[in-house]
Amino acid sequence: MTGVPVVISSWSGVRDAFRRKDLRQALYDDGQAVMGDCLLVLHGDAHRARRRLENRLFRREVFAYWEHDVLGPTIGEALQPFVLAGRGDLVPIGYRTTMNLTAFIAGVDRPTRSAEETETLYRLVRTFSEGATAVHSTRDRAALEADVGAALEVFDARFLRPSIERRRALLDAAERGEVDELDLPADVLTALLSNVDQLELSDDVVRREIAFYLQAGSHSTANAFTHTVDELFTRARPDDLERARNDRTFLQRCVHETLRLHPASPVAWRRPLGPATLSDGTDVTAEDLIVLDLVAANSSPELFGPDAAEWNPHREIDSGATAWGHSFGGGVHACIGMELDGGLEHDPDRSASEHLFGTVTVMVDAFLAAGGRPDPDSPAVIDPTSSRPHFSAYPVLFGAER
Fold it and tell me: Which of 130, 201, 203, 269 would bridge 27 by S-S if both were Cys, CB 3.0 to 4.6 A apart?
């Protein structure tokens, strides 16, 4: 079977492939300009060391702080100009909102928070997303790589270098006892700079890791936000839309159902480290490409019912599956920000104060509260530059309907 893609579409087959340590990440091999040596593509000991370091930032109590104290003002800042204008586009709204949050998490300072600064970072992050998902791009590859390279240079000079200099000064002050270590920034960049020698991180790797966090958080969350709004206004029953406006717990069910049907990538790719036998008995070699069909696995009737391919936030799910399916991956490469993005599934034994709704739910809630709705005179557009089924434009209106 050398060189022949091996497609796995069953729920159990995808789950088992995610858990195997002899299958490495392969989907981003074409996106090395952004993804080279970043957390998502590392394997083995290097991945464990990096993940162990960055996991310290992605604890549930930290997610609670971000959701309760950071997310609200961030969403408000991103939405305000569009609400005042009475119209906007969900795609840049989603990106601008999540970009500001992921910049905070990654450790990218926003000293002016001006409209020009926001627009510059927005363009850079969109370009990083294109570079990371190069395998699905329909653009000329040389032109895309040139754009990514230029964006990384601008990012380095405008945002990353100043952010690094400030953190190194703080780390030096902490080493001298002038700053309490608890007062250091709790972000990825500070964690990397504190361990740059131990992990043998070059400047290029640090730059790509921060660019990766910026684009990964912004890209996947912004797309989930747009798809959820689309599902609510095109497929939800009228009473469900009204309930979503007033019941955040139900709205989160709508988000989880959307995540299940619209994973950030419709497939995941793996390559064997050597000869191996998959759970279905298929023999593979290091030259074979393992394609995990997440859309098919997430539509398994055995786990999600006979209407598994339909959007239905009322569905009861088999205890062997999560509400969002395999959309956050699994095994050692499960999304590190899964709970930040999607929150926690409802647990009657968990107190309301401990529950997390997740970034996407809070964003959609704010959009609905502002009277957000699709613009009936300007239809949404599917992105023509990517084979991933995401929107490139989604015009919306705000305020009371006239």
Answer: 269
